[in-house]
Specification:
By secondary structure, this protein is mainly α. The protein folds into 2 domains: 127 residues, no CATH class; 229 residues, no CATH class. 49% of the residues lie in helices and 4% in strands. The strands form 2 sheets. The protein has a two-stranded parallel ribbon. A two-stranded antiparallel sheet has the order 3-4. Helix 11 runs antiparallel to helix 13 and helix 11 crosses helix 14. The protein is elongated. The chain starts with a helix and ends in a 25-residue tail after the last helix.
């Protein structure tokens, strides 16, 4: 279309038949709105931007109308366009030359009177450049990428992993924890070893090793991790599905966890439950460690007993269950409410005494998970 406009006298009356309903609507109805919002400044819209300027440059009237897609001429034109598109390379793109006085038609930026705080924030984020990821962050992403089998035997990219951390399945406290853990942002281990006179803070004095996040969550004798994971495995056994021993990569990529049957069918409820168990357990272990190291002053006598860890874990999971039950209230939460089916498929198989629960058990109290 740009090529055609370049070869037509600007004073001539012109009728352009467009087969694309979306393009026609953009050029006739949405262009002013897009300019107000600053959308035409996006690099992907540079061709559209030149097209709008080229049309405005014309002195003669320009009519844009929808072509009949079923017409013979439209069919041939569409086939020719698709064929040409397949042959195009970067060198074939026509650079339309604009008259010097027409550059005033190029509306840059966004219309301030139409802006909201949300739109301005999105615009700032779109133009902001971010520093390169640290080596440890890249290593954590790779661990998460390879720890969990992914759909279609493909590995999730970085964007998928970051979006998974921000999934609303996780409460804000867990999202923040996973984000910081992936970025290696917590002041533990090697962070302190690099500061003179503070090296001892980076050591786990119970295990006599460097205190890394992996050590805290999977190895430490003071964080309660062994009993916490054992209790999670005990509840998972109620579903009669195989348990995968957790790893740091599995924890950081918890939202990518999928559970399948032997025939390869995805079990959505079981997958969602395992994501919850892994993330809640990891966060509980981290909180237990922080309480012991900071609040209790790393006192060996105050290391929590396995029975206490088990009780705390069950309480945390029951709180999560009750939260999801309450979140199904559409009167209170409207469109943000959880679907009852989602909660039922996630929790039903692990509820205590479920055969004696009433049909609308989500609306009742006293419902607990099936271990205690």
């Amino acid at each position: 279309m740009l090529d055609a406009l370049a070869g037509i006298d600007r004073s001539d009356y012109l009728t352009v038949q467009i087969t694309s309903k979306k393009l026609l609507k953009t050029l006739t109805q949405r262009v002013s709105y897009m300019e107000d919002m600053g959308d035409l400044d996006l690099p992907l819209n540079s061709t559209l931007q030149r097209l709008v300027i080229k049309i405005r440059e014309r002195r003669g009237l320009t009519y844009l109308r929808r072509a009949n897609p079923a017409a013979q001429g439209s069919k041939h034109a569409r086939e020719a366009a698709l064929e040409a598109k397949g042959r195009w390379t970067a060198e074939d793109i026509v650079e339309v030359q604009l008259a010097p006085h027409i550059h005033s038609q190029h509306i840059q930026g966004a219309k301030l009177s139409q802006m909201t705080q949300s739109l301005l924030y999105k615009g700032i984020k779109r133009r902001k450049t971010y520093p390169a990821l640290k080596n440890q962050t890249l290593a954590n992403l790779d661990m998460a990428r390879h720890a969990v089998p992914y759909a279609n035997n493909t590995l999730p990219d970085d964007e998928t992993l970051w979006n998974g951390i921000n999934d609303k399945l996780f409460p804000h406290r867990i999202r923040a924890y996973l984000w910081k853990a992936t970025h290696n942002a917590y002041k533990i281990g090697r962070y302190w070893e690099q500061i003179p006179n503070y090296e001892q803070r980076g050591h786990c004095h119970v295990c006599a090793t460097t205190e890394t996040m992996g050590h805290i969550l999977l190895e430490c004798e003071a964080s309660g991790q062994a009993k916490a994971w054992k209790t999670a495995k005990e509840l998972w056994a109620v579903r009669q599905l195989p348990w995968t021993e957790p790893s740091l990569g599995m924890i950081l990529g918890a939202n990518q966890i999928e559970v399948h049957t032997a025939q390869g069918t995805l079990l959505k409820g079981a997958s969602r439950l395992l994501k919850i168990l892994v993330s809640e357990t990891a966060h509980l272990i981290w909180k237990t460690r922080c309480q012991w190291r900071i609040t209790d002053g790393a006192d060996f006598a105050k290391i929590k007993a396995p029975a206490t860890i088990r009780k705390t874990w069950i309480t945390a999971i029951n709180k999560r269950l009750h939260y999801e039950m309450l979140a199904t209230n559409r009167v209170r939460y409207g469109r943000k409410a959880l679907k009852k089916d989602t909660v039922e498929t996630t929790w039903w198989a692990v509820l205590a005494d479920r055969n004696n629960l009433q049909e609308d058990w989500i609306r009742t109290t006293g419902v607990l998970v099936g271990i205690g």
